[in-house]
Amino acid sequence: MRKHLTKLLAFCLVLAMALPLAACGKKDTPNPNPAPTNSPTVDQPSDTPDPTAEPSQEPVPTADPEDAVRSYWSEDQLTQAWGPGQVVEHLFFHPVIAYPEFAFSSAVPQDRQEGLDDWMVTVDEFNKILQSVYEKGYILVNMCDVWSEYTNENGEQRMQRNTLMLPEGKKPLIMSFDDVNYYDYMLSEGFMSKLIVGEDGDIWAYGVDPFTGEEVVTQDLDATTILDKFVREHPDFSLNGAKGCFSLTGYQGILGYRTQNDIDIAADSPERPAFDAKRQAEIDAVKPVIARLKETGWTFGSHTWGHIRLAAEGEKADARLKRDTLRWQEEVGSLVGPTNILFYPHGGRPDGDHDQGETYGPQFVWLQEQGFRIFASVGISSYSQIKTTISAVICDRLHPDGTTLRSGKAREHYLQFYDPKDIIDLDVRPDLGVTW
Ligand SMILES: [Zn+2]
């Protein structure tokens, strides 16, 4: 068993949550929501590379650099069996602070700075963490490959931990990224604003330099693009092209696009047509981003639509959860596709927690009935427990951020990944001390 830091769980940025079904969507290679530009062209000119055609003798002029990542390890190199009894480590991050000199300046209120200090890492810290976990032999795996559902001898659906086949000497690592929504508050606190598809077909981050006011398109200031780039430069860091799993809310849209509905605007309101048109433009704009992220090893889970606390009890809370879940499905699941992963906001877990065996409440059962199978919280180890009386697995993730980088007590749990002393940027962070 394990202890967990309840206080740490009280976190996750702002508010809410929800969700869909089916597996992690790894079979959906064809984009379920193709953007117009991705639509197959009929009667292609003969000089246009056709991805479905037989290999041609001529080199394709713009080979996808991600191909080298996906195919880096060949099957005969995957000789190390990582069995169900072996831990698959799991680290999670929030969006990284692109401009820490701005975020930790008087331009941002003190209490906000402390919030950012608690729950975020800076770009430089994130770079150092990636380098360290890579050097320590970790390899990114797809969270959707770690557990799967099967039918037991009684005909019941249950979850099981899969055996992963890895290269010799490597240790599996899941990375997840919470609240990759680019909330309004982040846009004024030194973060990037959205993910976009660049002219080269890759994912880039768009933002505004808070010091100069100039628009910035970069791959060096955002966790997603930094990880993409790191894996392109170190393809042995990824198993079959795996990257991370996004944990998305919906109340301010997703990935920097304001795709959310405003249910306060009535269907017959004069404001409706303009709102709908604007929203549709955001939806159209985010679709190619989602498609490219999926193509390049990223997966999606729910963080609830409204970042809601799930441990609350009572009919009111149950009703709220149902509304929230459906809204996530309508507004986020409809764009990113089905998922069976739920990342608890605020760490509030209605699943009976670790020490209560098979005890769990009606909210957990309802979420499971909606298709969720993997329920992720936050803790001091990559704990996981497969439920025996319902098809579900609960798991914890470690959280590199200011709270753990500063803590001597937490340090021992993170040394297998990195030494916080080598990572934390005390020159730029507020003067809040360390206990190591
Ligand atoms: Zn959160």
UniProtKB/TrEMBL annotation:
<dbReference type="GO" id="GO:0005975">
    <property type="term" value="P:carbohydrate metabolic process"/>
</dbReference>
<feature type="signal peptide">
    <location>
        <begin position="1"/>
        <end position="23"/>
    </location>
</feature>
<keyword id="KW-0732">Signal</keyword>
<dbReference type="InterPro" id="IPR011330">
    <property type="entry name" value="Glyco_hydro/deAcase_b/a-brl"/>
</dbReference>
<keyword id="KW-0378">Hydrolase</keyword>
<protein>
    <submittedName>
        <fullName>Hydrolase</fullName>
    </submittedName>
</protein>
<dbReference type="GO" id="GO:0016787">
    <property type="term" value="F:hydrolase activity"/>
</dbReference>
<dbReference type="InterPro" id="IPR051398">
    <property type="entry name" value="Polysacch_Deacetylase"/>
</dbReference>
<feature type="region of interest" description="Disordered">
    <location>
        <begin position="28"/>
        <end position="67"/>
    </location>
</feature>
